[in-house]
Amino acid sequence: MGSVINYPGWEVVIGLEVHTQLKTKSKIFSGASTEFGLEPNTQASSVDLGLPGVLPVANLEAARMAVKFGLAIDAHINRTNVFARKNYFYPDLPKGYQISQMDLPIVGEGKLTISTANGEKVIGITRAHLEEDAGKSLHEDFQGMTGIDLNRAGTPLLEIVSEPDMRSAAEAVAYLRKLHSLVTYLEICDGNMQEGSFRCDANVSVRPVDQKELGTRTESKNINSFRFVERAIDYEIERQIDLIEDGGTVVQETRLYDPDKHETRSMRSKEEAHDYRYFPDPDLPPMILEKSFIDNIRQSLPELPEAKFIRFVEDYKLNEEDATLLTSTRPIADYYEQVVNLSEADAKVTANWITGELFAALNNNDLEIQQSPVSAEQFAALLNRVADNTLSGKMAKQVFTALWKKEGQVDDIIEKQGLKQITDSGTIESIVDEVLTRCTEQVQQHKDGNEKVFGFFVGQVMQASKGKANPGKVNQLLKTKLNQ
Amino acid sequence: MTISNEDVQKIARLARLEVSEEQATKFSDELEKILHLVEKLKACDTTSVEPMTHPFDAALLLREDAVTEVNQRDKFQAIAPATQDGLYLVPKVLD
Q1: For the domain B5-42, what is the CATH code?
Q2: pTM score, whole prediction
Q3: Which residues make Cβ contacts (< 8 Å) with residue A412, sequence separation at least 6?
């Protein structure tokens, strides 16, 4: 997490609007597929195209996912909620309005607790409402025209609106990460920021510390990575402070974040751009949710990140740092628990291997744990061979590298690379004896009180055993023999 | 409540409609009459009435999440004014 930048004399106020694409199979108001990356317009049905005479039919799963989220943030669920039309003209919105929710969203007020540099902080969530995504405009030149792909049009979105409760870019990122973790834990969103499944708009304003009323805010759009959120917000904070200190005023406007230049710039502010003239959609009567429907969802909620964190600390005796890392996403937590269940190794040792060796390899190759070439089963098998003393730690790392390169199963690799550790005391003793007989000079140095030479003997024995002697036993035998 | 010609022009602009001054005068007059009716309705005591968002006393029907549509791009694009590489083409949009 980035460091908190201080702006003496100023208070920063940030609220985030996050659009999460719900991972339903079909769209929110049509039976077209929501699959990403297919040929343009092959998933745009008559409803998604806004052809005359068609009617929207709402997707039950989208409602279920929204309620799931609402329950997870301890929010009030509006058992009667209403779809409304948000009117504006843009070619990737063929109907001339977006079906959204205004006065009665499905999810009301809730909260999310984040960790900050100064401890825990509760961030209020104002609301979360269902709406349809728009299509995509391709501004490359098509004979002087714009190309429109409506495959994305109608993909269900849950727009999650926070209270202006964050006071630094770092807090905003912490909130965003927490939210990301939550929606992926709940399996309502795949969280893929590159593909636009989880998008963030940041409302930022600044005010002198002694001022009560909020400053004028701007909305920065197009922020599609955690790193960019932090940079875009910090850029915007500095821009606003500089502007006010130079005697200017902040204009309420929408700004676009440019990740190449690391700056936000004003989108040509359109006259009456914000006059959306919302009204209840006459095509869609109010959604009425039965209490039993909500209760069923409540009972099927998965274990949430906080609860998992506490359980990991208690059951697996992990420290908070490891527990945080291992519960940061559901796939990581699942992987860890699978390895723990399948192997004889200690849960803490397993945690060290996963946060150490595996995370390093994943980072170096820019992979998510779901893409790990080493499966949880293989990892468990590897740790079993450490637990039963077949492999030393160093050998296990060698086997891990081979597993990563898909060179085979653990026992095959051990066999092929001749990595079996020598644990038999008799065999190690004879190697130790051989070394001590050969290196009389160093034995004398040790007798004269040079403790440092001990490492030399360990090295010699390990070399003579081609690295296969169990280091613990080597140390033990050397100590006994040298002190005789 | 009075509706000026500017009000009419503003609403027309939001709806991307072209309205002449002559039409604007006519519409402002008509809209004022409609709003006058609304004023009359507002005079009724509705304190005990729950607001409705929809004219029918109906609940939304929800469908199971299943892909039921097939690709009909060729048919849809056959009636589009301009297409290329599977995209619908529209006059250039500037952000």
Answers
A1: 1.10.20
A2: 0.82
A3: none
